[in-house]
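Sanity check

After download, print the first record. It should look like this:
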Amino acid sequence: MKLLVTYNGYCGRAEFVKGTPEVCAMAIAKEARHKAKGRMRDATVEMYAQEIAEALRKDAEDPNTNELVFSTYAMPYTVGINKGVCNKNILKVTVLDVFDDIQQAT
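Expected structure tokens:
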């Protein structure tokens, strides 16, 4: 199963990604790290990617198109007036198309 997914990227512009749910989820999780200005560890990105992939698979099985909203958090600041504060980022994701991997005759 492959998906065509759109999500709001940096500065709110629409981004598209096509591939398996895991590939799409990793691209969305990396976008969350960009929105957090790099304040996420690789393990956190992979954790968010696994959760997003599960949600994408469930949404792909549903015939209705739903907008999925994910909240991600950056690592807390360690110094300054914002010490201990985590930035929250909201990602809106929509599955546009679901298709099977079919090889075309050449």
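If your output differs, re-run the checksum step. Summary of this record's structure: The chain is about 35% helix and 30% strand.
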